[in-house]
Amino acid sequence: MMNNKLKLIFFYFLLFFVMECESTKIIEIQGHRGCRGLMPENTLEAFKKAIELGVHTIELDVAISKDNIVVVSHEPFMSRTTCLDMNGFEIAEDYDKKYNLYQMTFDSIKQFDCGTKFHPRFTKQQKLKTYKPSLDEVIKTSKKLNPKIKFNIEVKSKPSFDGIFTPSPKDFVALVLRVVNDNQVFKTTNIQSFDLRVLEETKKQSPKMKVALLIGANEDVFGKLSSMSFLPEIISPDYKLLNDKLVRDLKTKNFQVIPWTVNSVEDLKKVIELNVDGIITDYPDRLINLLYK
């Protein structure tokens, strides 16, 4: 039997070990839309750059084309803010949402230039002519660069888009899961959404798929959670909602906490101090510098 002195030494050793592990815990670095602050969003070039920088996970958004290709795009249409038309001209204001991806084949979607236009919010983006890729392309390209890279896939869905800009949540989720499974990245992927219907459908079709509940700035975390029929693995709130108590409460309930989208050095430092599990950022280079340099 261990005597009391040895028990005490063992206890303090164990306490030190736990505290040391906690202090050196790795924060998952997620490149938002690749690395939107540095490269055109949701493009192969943005994902390549993010992986070269050293992100653990690439975060991206998906829509569906007319021919049922899962397209990597934040909007289910050609945004005037990020894209030029197939002739290289500005998309007129009265053409906003006219180029509906759900009514376009993937071949026609690739004709639009979504990398040359100046972005008013991300003035340091490197500009180059590029297109909206398929999810299949992104996964294959990313895995070649880093076989261990993880994928955080946001399904962009809401009731007003059903049948107009997007398929039903059931069909949408099925198409995304097919690409994930065909590329054998199930274990390194999670699906996230603001739309509870998408998360419910994901668990129905694939019970073991990790899901992340996205929380908007004007939403209540536990109020939204109470509307779900299951508990998601990850809670991803707007970072401005976070405080010490909320993070502790969520982690006590065994949720991973991965806020979005934290960009300034000052905000990144504050969120790091909250002991979150990961951070989604447009500037993964800034986060990497803070954590490792």
Automatic annotation (TrEMBL):
Residues 27-291 form the GP-PDE domain. PROSITE patterns: GP_PDE (PS51704). SUPFAM superfamilies: PLC-like phosphodiesterases. It comes from the Bacteria. InterPro entries: GP_PDE_dom, PLC-like_Pdiesterase_TIM-brl. Pfam families: GDPD. This is Glycerophosphodiester phosphodiesterase. It comes from Jejuia spongiicola.
